[in-house]
């Protein structure tokens, strides 16, 4: 059972739902009257994206990018690989990148620079979790959910070696799982 590998539940279902409602209300107010495109960063953002978009009350368009830098490791490789690009032409539209976690900041730093060439009217970030202690690149985050400690995080879409994404809460992973 995957729950046996959980060290500690850090953020429960109710807290996650309440945060999505709060962020959804802010985004709905701030982006009213604009062409908003939510860009989910696969795969980690899928659960957050799904819950967040249901709390947004203005029209939104969805697109996804897939990037990977962690693979089956607990440390970033430092090389951000784009596996899937945007499908949509975002010129003149307001991009809101939906991300699950910022750790070193390398993924979002690379993505924001990469997306600049698409001539969107704005590029902002909503990120559920922030592991501030490990930051290597400063990232301007417009909407932030929770701070998390410097532990390996799993659940609510977030994986270790592709597992644990289906846990309904945010948790830390037992060290023995990735050090053995
Ligand atoms: O701030 P950073 O140190 O760059 O780390 C954050 C990124 O790492 C994870 O993605 P991962 O590469 O594991 O891909 P995944 O979303 O498919 O799991 C996570 O979903 C973020 O996109
Ligand atoms: O703590 C984490 N867990 C899973 N994926 C991650 N990518 C960056 N940090 C993490
Ligand atoms: Mg991952």
TrEMBL record:
Catalytic activity: GMP + diphosphate = guanine + 5-phospho-alpha-D-ribose 1-diphosphate; IMP + diphosphate = hypoxanthine + 5-phospho-alpha-D-ribose 1-diphosphate
Domain Phosphoribosyltransferase: 15-160
Matches recorded under Pfam families: Pribosyltran
Keyword line: Cytoplasm, Glycosyltransferase, Magnesium, Metal-binding, Nucleotide-binding, Purine salvage, Transferase
Cofactor: Mg(2+)
CDD domains (alphabetical): PRTases_typeI
GO term, biological process aspect, one: IMP salvage
InterPro entries referenced in this protein's UniProt entry, alphabetically: HGPRT, Hxn_phspho_trans, PRTase-like, PRTase_dom
Cell compartment(s), UniProt: Cytoplasm
Official protein name in the record: Hypoxanthine phosphoribosyltransferase
């Amino acid at each position: 059972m995957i729950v046996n590998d959980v060290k500690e539940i850090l953020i429960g279902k109710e807290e996650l739902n309440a945060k999505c409602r709060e962020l959804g209300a802010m985004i709905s107010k701030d982006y009213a009257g604009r062409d908003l495109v939510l860009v989910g960063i696969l795969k980690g953002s899928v659960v957050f994206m799904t819950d967040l978009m249901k709390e947004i009350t203005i029209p939104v368009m969805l697109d996804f990018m897939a990037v990977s830098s962690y693979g089956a490791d607990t440390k970033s490789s430092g090389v951000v690989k784009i596996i899937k690009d945007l499908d949509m032409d975002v010129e003149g539209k307001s991009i809101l990148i939906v991300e699950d976690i910022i750790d070193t900041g390398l993924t979002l730093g690379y993505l924001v620079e990469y997306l600049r060439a698409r001539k969107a009217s704005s590029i902002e970030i909503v990120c559920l979790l922030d592991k501030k202690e490990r930051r290597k690149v400063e990232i301007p985050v417009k909407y932030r959910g929770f701070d998390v400690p410097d532990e390996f995080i799993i659940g609510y879409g977030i994986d270790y070696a592709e597992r644990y994404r289906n846990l309904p809460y945010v948790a830390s992973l037992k060290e023995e799982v990735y050090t053995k």
